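Format notes (please read before filing issues)

Several people have asked whether sequences and C-alpha cells are stored in separate files. They are not. Every record keeps both together, in the order shown below: the sequence lines, then the C-alpha cell lines. Line labels are part of the format and must not be stripped during preprocessing.
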Amino acid sequence: MNITQVFESPVGRIAIKASENGVCRILLRPTERLLRSLGSRSDASTGVRVARVLGLIRAQLEQYFSGGRVTFDVPLDMSSGTSFQQKVWRACRQIPYGQVRSYSELAEMVICPRGARAVGGAIAANPLPIVVPCHRVIRSDGSPGGYRHGLTLKKKLLRLESGAGWQWRRETGVQ
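Then the structure lines:
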C-alpha cells in the first residue's frame, strides 16, 4: 500500500510517496506525467499510519525550508536501492547539517576507498533528496559537482544550510 501527497514548497512542487515502512520517495518538481505514474493506493487498515508519516515529513520539510530543522526523524523505506546504494544513503545521512563531504570522503565512509564514481552513481539514484542529503556531497576540488535536481537547487540548499538562509529566503520568496 502506497500513498502519494503533493504540495508546494519554496523549491517548487514536491511529491512524497510513503509505504507501510515509511517515506519511500521524494520527488522535487515532478512532472504531471510522473505524478500520474506514481498513483495512490490505500486501504483503511494501513492508510491512517501512512497518512500520519506523510503529514510528519511534510511538516518537517516545511520546517527545514524555514531554517528551523536540521535533521529528519521520520521512518524511511529505502528498500528500492541495492545494498551498496542503501549503505551510501545511510552515510549521506551522517553528514551534519551545514557541512559537506567529497565523493571520495563518502567512499571512504562506506569502506570503498576508490569508489568515488560508484558513490556518485548511488547518490544519483537517491530516492529521498533533502532527507537523505546528497546535496551535501561535493567534488574534492570544492566545486559542487552534479545534482539530479539541478545545480541551482543544490547551491540554494547548501546556502540555506551554511547560515545564509536569510539570503536564500529572499531569493526564493520564503518568509
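For reference, the curators noted about this record: The chain has seven helices and five strands. Helices lie at 32-38, 44-65, 83-92, 103-109, 116-124, 151-161, 165-172.
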